[in-house]
Amino acid sequence: MIKPSSHFIYEKIADDLRSRIENKEFANDRLPSERELAKHYDVNRITLRKAIDMLEQEKLISRDGTRGTFIGRRRARKSGNLVIGFVLVGRSRIDQIHSVTIMELEQQLKQYNSHMMLFSISDEDEIDDVLATPAGNGLLDAVIITGLVSPRIAQKIGELGLPTILFGHLMYQSPVEKSFDRVFPDSLDYSYQAVKYLGDKGHKKIALINGPGYQWFLNIYQGYMRALDELDLEYDEILVEKCVQDTLVQGIRAMSNLLKRECPNAVFVANERLGLGVVECLKTRGIKYPEDIEIITVGTDHSELPGSEKVETVVICWKSMIESALEMLFSRINEPTLPPRSKAVPFRIICPTHELKTLVHV
Q1: Dist CA 69 CA 94 (whole Å)
Q2: Pairing between β-strand 142-147 and β-strand 181-185 as defined by DSSP bridges
Q3: How many angstroms separate the first and last alpha carbons of the chain?
Q4: Helix, strand and coil percent figures for the chain, each rounded to 5
């Protein structure tokens, strides 16, 4: 612990580190992790980073965001053989869309001669238990985070010092989001395009079955409202069902509740998990689709619904999304000082019985 003096505490820490570097106290010419140093000096990581910044400006040390902080100039990076952590947040099980993501990610990483390591965390407290050790020991070169990611979780993972890609949206809007490289489907735009597509086909009662109050689903609601306005259709609360979870069971319940109040002639369903429930509900009631009710849901090119279920789908190009994520991630690894970037991925609306309906560029 550094004793108080007339100097700022971070200056005293920097002085002590200089002395320890000169005495060659650090093995492999590498400083301990920020967490270890902050604990050693009994300070928070913000104060510690000010000391590290001073030494870096003096070119006494160099940061390599994927490996740690080294004494002397930045070391040349080896090509390939990197390990990318895929961090799934707040999901108790791996569903179909996560399976597709993992398989596609593993496949594309082969092109970089690199590998994936899968992590699952339920809350920010698990970051220390699950991620801090492999990150601190240099076992991870970068991370991709997805799922129910709160701003606090994103910020805490960012503090591990690894190049990080946010795959999708945070749970709710926050300035933190802008500090990360991010690849995402534009749920506001694709919901607007899907509802507009239904309206242009002449449907007047267009319902929305949406997910919980996360940013992704709030954007869908906004897109739905925008499309109704442009179609000159009056918004009707009884045509909107909000689910507490985006699951098959909730999709069944939502469609059942909707039919008790009003029978729409078209429904936009926020994602494939809910869409499977909607289809199941209509089957049990003997309601035909698309003859009686036209359905558009959201999925990937690996979706379970299109074709066999006669459900139109907003197809998000998952391969393109992962390609974009890896391109961003590897450029971030090689150029840590790049400004944060954000990219929306393309999607299209398809009908299982016809060729491509429309391609939407984003």
Answers
A1: 35
A2: unpaired
A3: 53
A4: 45, 20, 35
Interatomic CA distance for residues 166 and 182, integer angstroms: 5
E strand residue ranges, 255-356: 266-269, 294-300, 312-316, 342-345, 347-350
Separation between Cα atoms, residue 29 and residue 40, nearest integer Å: 18
Q: Which fold has domain 83-183+319-343?
A: Rossmann fold (3.40.50)
Residue 296 has a CB neighbour count (10 Å cut-off) of 25
Asked if 299 contacts 306 with a C-beta cutoff of 8 angstroms, the reply is yes
What tokens appear for 270 in the block? 């926020």
pLDDT digits (tens, 9 = 90+) for 157-203: 988 888 999 999 999 999 999 999 999 999 999 999 999 999 999 99
Task: Give the other-Cβ count within 10 Å of 137's Cβ.
Answer: 10
25: which residues sit within 8 A by CB, 6+ positions away?
none
CB atoms inside a 10 Å sphere around CB 138: 15
pTM for this predicted structure: 0.74
Domains 83-183+319-343 and 187-317+350-360 share a fold: yes
